[in-house]
Amino acid sequence: MVGLMKRCVAVVMVALLLCLLSGCGMGTSFCASKQDEQRPSADTARKILIVYYSRSGDTRELAQVIQENVGGDLLELQTVEPYPKEDEKIAEQAKPEITQGIKAILKPIIYDVKDYDLIFVGYPIWRGTIAPPVTSFLIQNDFTNKTLIPFCTHGGNGEVNSVSDIQKLLPRALVLNGFAANGSNVENEKQNIINWLSKIQIGE
After folding, report:
1. Contact assessment for residue 58 and residue 124, using Cβ atoms and an 8 Å cutoff
2. Nearest to residue 132, comparing CAs of 167, 100, 156?
3. Conformation bin of residue 146: beta by default, left when phi > 0, alpha when psi is -120 to 50
4. Contact (Cβ atoms closer than 8 angstroms) between residue 153 and residue 125
5. Percent of the chain with pLDDT over 90
6. Could you tell me the pTM of the whole model?
């Protein structure tokens, strides 16, 4: 009789153990499934900032097209003292800023670089490189482990040294291939920008 009772108890314990193991397995699977459902995609999780300086408005047009296709926050850099409108006077003012490292003084900005993963940086080409307001922005912020994507407008010579100059300024950032558009042809560059965004797997 005692032996029979022991066998019954053993059977019940085995049954309970099997149920518990089965239940735990279902719970783990369910939790993993829920985590997969709730885990945002790379595009959803990525925070994008599109920062640019534009004196004539050409670089601004590129920035707006980029935002329309990838989303993100749009930040226009502005200097405390505006640059002159004439190209000759701009070149005269920008020369010492570029060659001597004089910083353009920016108005306060409302976005913090540390809150973003991917940062588009737009600028006109002045004297073969980044316009000084953008240089000031890059120097004043920490881009360690950030991904930067340059885009620029130019007068016919392309990006020149601007991308390599950004890489020198920000050795701890990943600087991807950029986009360059002739400032006189920006209105016709929209599809080219979209194609470029798709090529680097940033756009829709």
Report:
1. yes
2. 100
3. beta
4. yes
5. 55
6. 0.76
Please give the pLDDT value at position 201.
77
- Within 8 A by CB and 6+ apart from 175, the residues are 148, 149, 150, 163, 166, 167
Give the CATH fold of the 42-199 domain: Rossmann fold (3.40.50)
Please give the C-alpha separations between residue 108 and each of 11, 38, 80, 140, 148, in angstroms, as whole numbers. 75, 37, 9, 12, 21
Residue 99's contacts (CB-CB under 8 Å, 6 or more residues apart) are: none
3-state secondary structure of 100: coil
Closest among 96, 98, 97, 86 to 56, alpha carbons compared:
86
Residue 125 confidence class, pLDDT cut points 50, 70, 90 = very high
Reduced DSSP (H G I as helix, E B as strand, rest coil) percent helix, strand, coil of the chain, to 5 = 50, 20, 30
